[in-house]
Structure formats: structure tokens, C-alpha cells
Write a structure and sequence with these properties.
Blueprint: H1 11-18, E1 25-28, H2 35-44, E2 49-54, H3 57-67, E3 73-78, H4 84-90, E4 96-102, H5 144-150, H6 153-164, H7 169-179, H8 188-198, H9 201-204, H10 212-222, H11 225-239, E5 240-250, H12 253-268, E6 272-274, H13 284-289, E7 297-303
Parallel strand pairs: 1-2, 1-4, 2-3, 4-5
Antiparallel strand pairs: 5-7, 6-7
Helix pairs in contact: 1-2, 6-7, 6-10, 7-8, 11-12
The structure holds S-adenosylmethionine (SAM).
Length: about 300
């Protein structure tokens, strides 16, 4: 059985990278289970302000309780970090001193327990409605249900290739389209069975579950994870005060490449410097305790003093 509680990845490293000073204003763009946020809040002390967002309103609701006991001003927002720029303007901050994003999902969203914040259809291990959105499915242009039930096979194959390098992309896409003959594909379990039956037997025993890549690709497409990340980095660099720091933790190479290139370009444009010439990665000890940490990479950008 997999863990159902999220373990914060690169906790000390990411918060250290922000170089939090008492009385600063820090944004945690991905509150999640509040691991990073609580440590940031502790370092901010009474005079500082933490602004924390998450697209998943369950994360916000669960975090409220945790912050009752800590001192600084904490402002929690159920928002997509794509909206970082407008949100900060709306709440009256021209600039902030540090911004953190720890991308992807938290364990509770995979848990299969609707009460605990699962129920998103992210996992092929539990049978749940197939939407795969971090936030309210109603606010997304399409969900995984739409991909499975109405996309053309070529479009499905394209996201499987581009977002997950799925080697059986076309085969899986055709099987999904063919399965519609038997009724709608409404759950993660149904989708996973279709994938499992469509791939060669050898692939079923190849180390990773045959549904892993398809589920990853659909989640990235539904949440426009790469587009959102680009918009976020641009807004974050804009909103950082002189000497402010942006720290981003990624979990797959597509995201890491975007962060690496955006930071390099910002440095070339004279906006500041890349603090992490090489990404910071978790220690062996952390990976042993939390295998999900194994693909994590932390990159940090320092905004120029005179920008
Ligand atoms: C890896 S978890 C963060 C864990 C957190 N740092 C902790 O220590 O508990 C990522 C969180 O980001 C949220 N998320 C993912 N994409 C988002 C987006 N575009 N906007 C806002 N929140 C997002 C997810 O709902 C999830 O709760």
C-alpha cells in the first residue's frame, strides 16, 4: 500500500534557498500540505507575511487549522498560480521578497479518499471519476474525461508522446477510442484497464505500470502544466523585489527544462542571476525515506538589486 500522507520534498533546502528574513513577504504558490509554508511562517516571525495559494480548495481548508497556532500574517488563497500576477495586484502587493513553487501533486490527491482530498482520478491504482484537474473541474476547458471520451486518436497519441514519451502512444490511443463503443470511460480504473489490455505483454512487466505514462500525460495536458509554469515564472520574476528569490522544485524533465531555460534567459536579460548552476537534489537519505523525492530538482533565481 502506498503512503497516503504527503511528505514535503527538499524542505530545508527550498526554504533555505529563499533566505527568509523576519518581516518579509513570501509567496508559497503551491501550499499543498503546508510543509514548506509552515517552516517559512516560522522564519518570518510575527512581522512577516505569508501568502499561500493552491488550486485545490481542500489544501486551503486543511491548512487553515495548521496556521491557527503560528504567528505571522497568513493569507491563504484558493487560486491557480497562473493568476499570480493579477492576484498580487488585487491584494495590494506590487512586489514580494520570495516565491516558492513545489510543482505537481501531493500524496493526498492520489489517495483515493475523497474526504482527504483524493478523488481526482490522478491515480490508476484507485477507481475514481476521471477528471484529473488540480482545482474545480468546472473551471478547466477540458478534463481527462473529455480526452478519453471525445478526442481524436491522433490528438491523444500526441500528448502521450509529447508529455510522457509513451512508446505505445498510438496503440493506447486507438484502444481508448475503440473502448468508447462499449460506453463512456468514466473512471480512472476503466481507463487503466483499457491501457493494460492494449499494450504488449512484455510492457506490462517492464518495471513501471503500463498506465503510468498515459496518466502523467493526461494530467499535464488537462492542467496545462507547462503553459501554466511559463506564465507563472514570468509573473514571479516581474513581482520579485530587488534581491528577491524565486525557488522552484520540479519532478520531471519537461518542467525542469522550462525552469532552467527561463532562468538562463532572465539572467541573460540582466534581470538577476541563477543561484543554482546545477539543480539542488535530495540527499540519498531523503530518497530512501521518500522515494517520490528521487526525481526532484530545485532551481533558484536571485533578482538583481537594481532591476
Ligand atoms: C507537491 S504539492 C506541494 C506540497 C507542499 N510544498 C508541502 O510541503 O506540503 C503541489 C501542490 O500544488 C498544487 N498545484 C498544482 N498545480 C497548481 C497550480 N497551477 N496552481 C495552484 N496550485 C497548484 C496542488 O494542488 C498541490 O497541492
Amino acid at each position: 500500500m502506498h503512503d497516503t500522507k504527503h511528505i514535503t520534498v527538499l524542505l530545508q533546502e527550498a526554504v533555505d534557498a529563499l533566505d527568509v528574513q523576519p518581516n518579509e513577504v513570501i509567496v508559497d504558490a503551491t501550499l499543498g500540505s503546508a510543509g514548506h509554508s509552515l517552516l517559512i511562517a516560522e522564519r518570518l516571525g510575527k512581522a512577516g507575511t505569508l501568502i499561500a495559494l493552491d488550486a485545490d480548495e481542500k489544501a486551503i481548508a486543511q491548512a487553515r487549522e495548521k496556521f491557527m497556532k503560528v504567528a505571522p500574517n497568513v493569507r491563504l488563497w484558493n487560486a491557480n498560480f497562473r493568476e499570480l500576477g493579477p492576484l498580487l495586484e488585487q491584494i495590494g502587493y506590487d512586489t514580494v521578497d520570495g516565491i516558492l513553487a513545489d510543482l505537481g501533486w501531493r500524496q493526498e490527491q492520489f489517495g483515493g479518499d475523497v474526504e482527504q482530498g483524493g478523488g481526482k482520478g490522478f491515480s490508476f491504482r484507485v477507481d475514481e471519476p476521471l477528471h484529473m484537474t488540480f482545482g474545480d473541474p468546472e473551471s478547466y476547458p477540458f478534463t481527462a474525461y473529455d480526452i478519453a471520451n471525445s478526442w481524436e486518436p491522433e490528438s491523444i497519441a500526441t500528448i502521450l508522446q509529447n508529455y510522457a514519451e509513451e512508446r505505445h502512444a498510438m496503440r493506447i490511443a486507438r484502444a481508448i477510442v475503440a473502448a468508447r463503443e462499449n460506453g463512456t470511460i468514466a473512471t480512472s480504473g476503466q481507463l487503466s484497464s483499457i491501457i493494460e489490455e492494449s499494450v504488449p505483454a512484455a510492457y506490462r512487466h517492464s518495471g513501471i505500470h503500463p498506465s503510468t505514462r498515459t496518466f502523467q500525460a493526461m494530467r499535464i495536458a488537462v492542467n496545462d502544466e507547462l503553459g501554466v509554469l511559463e506564465t507563472f515564472i514570468e509573473a514571479a520574476l516581474e513581482k520579485l523585489a530587488p534581491n528577491g528569490r524565486l525557488a522552484i522544485i520540479t519532478f520531471h524533465s519537461l518542467e525542469d527544462r522550462i525552469v532552467k531555460h527561463a532562468f538562463r534567459k532572465a539572467a541573460a536579460d540582466g534581470k538577476g542571476e541563477v543561484v543554482t548552476k546545477k539543480p539542488i537534489i535530495p540527499s540519498d537519505e531523503e530518497v530512501t525515506k521518500n522515494p517520490r523525492a528521487r526525481s526532484a530538482k530545485l532551481r533558484v533565481f536571485l533578482k538583481a538589486f537594481n532591476d
